[in-house]
Fold this protein.
Amino acid sequence: MKKQALLLAMIIFTTSAIAAKTPDPLVLQWQAKLQKLAQSPTLGAYALSMRVRAEEALEHLRNAGDKQRPYWQYMTDKRVALAYAEARLEAARNQFFKLQQKHNEILLQATRKNANSVRLELARERLQNAVANEQTHRLQAQSRHYANQAQQAQQIAQQAQQAAQQAGQLAVTQEHAAKLARREARLAIAAVRTMRAQLDHLAASQGAQGMQMTLGDYAFAIGQAALRPQAQVHLGKLIQFVKSAPNKSILVIGYTDSRGQPSANLALSRARARAVAHTLIDAGVKAGRIHVIGRGKADPVASNRTAAGRAKNRRVVVILKNS
């Protein structure tokens, strides 16, 4: 009893240590950028849609495995940058619209002033020619005012041109991101097709304890115990294999490669073997026939020094035990 209590305490301690992950500095950095954008008095009201997409990418990054992390790091970085770019662009457009309204109001006021000035000039010419000099100075002042307005309009046009250039750059960036997403989708479809072909061509072989079939690492998500949904529906060969000898016991053994903590590898190998066993039970195999074992990194069938070798070592073996 003391040994069992000590083993249980060690498992709880190891699980707690694994769960206590150090916060990802990149996640914290991008989260801080999004918070800063949301709290910005000048940009906080803009780019709401892209900010939501950036938050979604950030959430994917928090939950991503080792292979998916580079992709979601790239997508998070790009979406945060796009959120800032869209916010600045929308703010510039809003400012341009306000400046355009102001410009139109100034032109309307100037037109009205000009008409009033002409009427006053005619009246003054009829009444007193002496005021001509004063009127001339007034017209010169108005000319300088119009010149200033023209300069402001030119500056507004330059700002609009810069905003258009930023919009073009944003479109190019979004197209690049779309191409990357389409490429990822094509790769995912190809991976599923490859996995289905491998499952459809499973073959039994003679092992030390009886005939056996080996389910490769491709049937599981990276670092996960659950079978991929696409794999669960293509295990017909494996189910037919275990049902071919209904009187024999079934041994389901899970293995991992040598990377990571031994205790974590042992738990993962056992969980994967259990997932396969549950699938067999759901297919009508009697639970009493099945015995589940997790062996962790034990009994490698290839070298753990290469990626290909490690992939071969990550497997679940289903054995029809000899009597």
Q: What stands out?
A: The beta strands are 205-206, 210-216, 250-255, 290-294, 315-321. The longest strand covers residues 210-216. The radius of gyration is 36 Å. The CA atoms of residues 182 and 188 lie 10 Å apart.
